[in-house]
Amino acid sequence: DIVMTQSPDSLAVSLGERATINCKSSQSVLNSSNNKNCLLWYQQKPGQPPRLLIYWASTRESGVPDRFSGSGSGTDFTLTINSLQAEDVAVYYCHQCYSPPYTFGQGTKLEI
Amino acid sequence: EVHLVESGGGLVQPGGSLRLSCAASGFTFSSHWMHWVRQAPGGGLVWVSQIETDGTRTSYADSVRGRFTISRDNAKNTLYLQMDSLRADDTAVYYCGRFASGTFFWGQGTLVIVSS
Fold first, then answer.
1. What is the pLDDT of residue B8?
2. Which of A38, A84, B75, B93 would bridge A97 by S-S if both were Cys, CB 3.0 to 4.6 A apart?
3. Selected residue of A77, A96, A102 to mutate for chain B interface (largest B Cβ count, 10 A)
4. CA gap B60, B47 in Å, rounded
């Protein structure tokens, strides 16, 4: 199984500042058929389902503010949130869709 | 607009069974792999199972293999999760999801509580 490890577990950032969340996979999630990393990022607020932010490691989902960006390849990935807003307080998860079981990171709690 | 609506959750005793349903609309259900994930109270997201478009191929997490069965009815645009031999650690919100072109869309979830 691919183990997804996020860091840090929690993060406190001031309004208007940048938040950076890392995700490391125990093996590459690069899909050789399309040369894309099968890695997603979600935002989850209490009582809500996960909301997709980023797919293919760096493609922003429609409707997601451009202050959210994803980067990385192979086994190391980063979610960056620029100009942090109050509504960005949530738990963030990375998720590999390369091979079953399609494992998630443990989550990173972002606070102001 | 894509809609996924889960139902069938509730309180069940250990060792009991429950069948979850996920009604899909707003897309061609029969063209997409479908998934279930779950989230225990206060916990993280855990992938549970997937099913291919025509239902012939399925995969399961080790923790549920042999106890849970995923299936689908493409004529009814509905995904199912039959859960047998339920244990306390199966207590969670269960979300169904559509996989499409590298993306996932998740429903609102249904709560399953396994307790005596």
1. 97
2. A38
3. A102
4. 8
CA dihedral A97, A98, A99, A105 (to 10 degrees): -50
Q: Do B104 and A104 touch (CB under 8 A)?
A: no
- Give the model confidence (pLDDT) of A84-110 as tens digits: 999 999 999 999 999 989 999 999 999
Rounded Cα–Cα distance for residues A14 and B45 (Å): 27
C-alpha B94/C-alpha B114 separation (Å) is 13
Q: Which of B44, B95, B107 sits opposite A106 (nearest CB)?
A: B44
* Sign of the CA dihedral running B49, B81, B32, A77: negative
C-beta atoms of B103 and A52 within 8 A: yes
